[in-house]
Design a protein that fits this description.
alpha+beta; D-amino Acid Aminotransferase, Chain A, domain 1; 4 domains; 8-stranded mixed sheet; 5-stranded antiparallel sheet; 23 helices
Length: 654
């Protein structure tokens, strides 16, 4: 078997207007042309033995019963009754992605014109993962057809790695998903983790949980713990006593002043990196100093404050959520070793690799080994029944910690304190770390303290706490970026057809500009922003459309949209306000597997199907194929004709 063509759709396309992110591949079945799953001895048994989940109802991602009915699992009974190999490859490609933590379900397959060749179309979450899954699915099915071994773990591990490298991360994704739920478009800027929300002049940007509104000065203050502490102390906020050291001599002086227990952490660190808490002796203090200096030349030495670790999240000056965090830990049973207890904890289906799931799997890294050594333990030690062993010195979720929502328990004094801290530091989105024995009691009464202020705080502990009520902390972020009534899009007019596209595009762009709009438009000869040509060449594909929609000066887009770009990667937008189809003629047939004028009409007919409900599809009533596009559209339809007596026009007007 061999993939002879592979394309990545990133918007509405010939294969689906509703499912934007699709892998489209042509597979030459070669020696297995004409074979089905039931004509190859033992194929069904080998496939379900290797991928038993492929025949089970999908639970990951919680698809609806309607989705399950439309896209049922591929059961052994179906395989035994007979399924085309292209259909099997489609299901395998989807299942491989699901096993790597990417919940994708939609797909289809059908024969190509060439004998023994199948089109396989399926959804992807991450583009690189989808393309890899396509190749792996073909290789897996071919191996099973030949009765050969296939190492599934290597494929899943690679897909896991791709997901971790490419996926937004839970915090960013929560904001993007909230924006999408409000019909706000988003674009991931090329070669970066920056996400654009909205189009043109109405765009906002996020990078993790920082925004284009985030103060650079606030980020700088939060990144320097000494400066943060000084500002908070001046503002009457309880903070631990401490100092900054650069050497063991400085460490010795700090301990003489503060006494034990102490905490060491890098001056410029974040997310708990390089921090060691509850240090009780000189030897551990030296180790803590060395650990912190891996991240910063300067090391903060502070008095250790008793209490539980709490994270309070403030967005736009208001406390949104609070969580009590607990470091990664195991509880002994008198039988299992520490490593076996870790493995048992990691069996929790909520735990996964990196940010794949609600919780992160616990890893016994060097920091863990140092903690064990300090307690005269090892990974092979057996803990007494009921004994809790903390495996990390900090309570970060990313290192296997857990979180309990306590938002409704926070004392009014502590609410005000958190909101004041965010204001003092100057952050629009701010994570405040408090140590206190009881968050329901004012901090000044528990002798607790604010120990850290974080720019770009993680949201995972709030949107999916281990215990307690999940909080939609992304909603206040979108409310801040796009206050009620704020525009998020710009008008889009898209033009397609065989002839007259460029002329029509230029005329419309000129008319729109003449009434005061700042227009960006694309044509076969380039991209123009406010009348200035910024790129030359054929710019009628999805990337060129995105170029215009990314431009922060544009408030109106006019986009020539050719069939080549639609077949190569889909449209560069999901919806438009007006779609114009000039005509469909027998041109470019035979290219990219479009052989008939009817198939060409189906390609160009994608555009009017993307018009929003109150928008307009402007169609040529003189062209039979274009006229037929007006049927079953959800938008308004306007027809044009070179013949003022065209009966279709007269009927439509009546």
């Amino acid at each position: 078997m061999k993939i002879i063509d592979l394309r990545t759709m990133r918007g509405p396309s010939y294969w689906s207007v509703k499912h934007y992110r699709l892998i489209v591949c042509k597979v030459d079945l070669q020696e297995f042309a004409g074979e089905w799953s039931n004509t190859i001895d033992g194929f069904a048994e080998r496939l379900t033995a290797l991928l038993p989940e492929i025949g089970q109802p999908h639970t990951e991602g919680r698809p609806t019963s309607k989705q399950l009915a439309k896209h049922p699992p591929l059961t052994q009974e179906q395989l035994a009754d007979g399924e085309p190999l292209g259909h099997v490859i489609q299901h395998v490609a989807l299942e491989l992605q699901r096993q790597a933590g990417m919940p994708v379900f939609w797909g289809k397959s059908y024969p190509a014109r060439e004998e023994g060749v199948e089109y396989v179309v399926f959804s992807y979450q991450e583009e690189r993962a989808g393309r890899y899954a396509a190749q792996a699915a073909v290789e897996l099915v071919e191996a099973l057809c030949k009765g050969e071994e296939f190492t599934l773990k290597l494929v899943i591990d690679e897909l896991h790695d791709i997901r971790e490298e490419e996926f937004f991360g839970p915090s960013t994704w929560s904001i993007v998903a909230e924006a999408a739920s409000r019909n706000i478009p988003y674009i991931q800027l090329k070669n970066s983790s920056i996400i654009q929300l909205g189009y043109g002049v109405n765009q906002r940007r996020i990078w993790a949980t920082t925004t284009n509104l985030t103060s650079h000065a606030g980020v700088e203050v939060a990144g320097n713990k000494n400066r943060t502490k000084a500002m908070l102390e001046d503002g009457g906020v309880p903070v631990p006593r401490g100092t900054t050291v650069y050497s063991e001599d400085g460490l010795r002086d700090a301990i003489e002043e503060l006494g034990f227990p102490i905490v060491t952490k890098p001056l410029d660190g974040n997310h708990g990196k390089g921090a060691t808490i509850r240090i009780m002796n000189w030897e551990d203090a030296v180790e803590g100093l060395k650990f912190a200096k891996e991240y910063s030349r300067a090391v903060i030495v502070e008095q250790f404050v008793e209490g539980d670790d709490h994270r309070l999240l403030v967005v736009n000056g208001k406390l949104i959520a609070a969580a009590r965090r607990t470091p990664a830990a195991v509880v002994g049973d008198g039988q299992l070793t520490v490593q076996q207890l870790i493995d048992k904890v990691n069996e929790d289906p909520r735990r996964g690799v990196g940010h794949e799931k609600v919780l992160t799997s616990i890893k016994a890294d060097q920091h863990t080994l140092d903690i064990l050594k300090g307690q005269e333990l090892s990974l092979e030690s057996v803990l007494p029944a009921g004994q809790t062993l903390y495996l990390k010195s900090t309570a970060n979720i990313s290192t296997g910690g857990t979180a309990t929502d306590v938002t409704d328990l926070v004392a009014p004094y502590n609410v005000l304190l958190a909101e004041r801290v965010a204001g003092i530091v100057g952050l629009d989105i701010c994570g405040i770390d408090m140590l206190t024995s009881d968050i329901a009691i004012p901090l000044n009464e528990t002798r607790g303290a604010v120990i850290e202020v974080n720019a770009a705080p993680g949201f995972r502990m709030h949107i999916a706490p281990t215990d307690g009520l999940p909080r939609n902390v992304a909603a206040p972020v979108i409310d801040m970026l796009f206050p009620a009534g704020a525009a998020t899009r710009i008008p889009i007019i898209a033009i397609t057809g065989t002839n007259g596209k460029t002329t029509t595009t230029r005329l419309i762009a000129h008319l729109v500009a003449s009434i005061g709009y700042k227009v960006g438009f694309t044509t076969t000869d380039g991209i123009y922003i406010q009348g200035v040509q910024l790129q030359k060449g054929d710019c009628t594909g999805g990337q060129s459309a995105e170029f215009v929609l990314r431009d922060p000066t544009v408030n109106y887009a006019v986009l020539e949209t050719a069939r080549g770009g639609m077949l190569r990667s889909g449209l560069g937008f999901h919806t438009c306000d007006i779609a114009v189809v000039t005509n469909v003629a027998a041109d470019h047939l035979g290219m990219r597997d479009i052989y008939t004028v009817e198939e060409m009409a189906a390609v160009k007919g994608v555009l009017p199907r993307t018009v929003r409900k109150n928008g307009w599809a402007v169609l040529n009533a003189d062209d039979d194929l274009v006229y037929e596009m007006g049927r079953n559209l959800d938008c308004k339809v306007a027809y044009f004709s070179m013949n003022e007596h065209n009966p279709r026009i007269q009927e439509h007007v009546e």
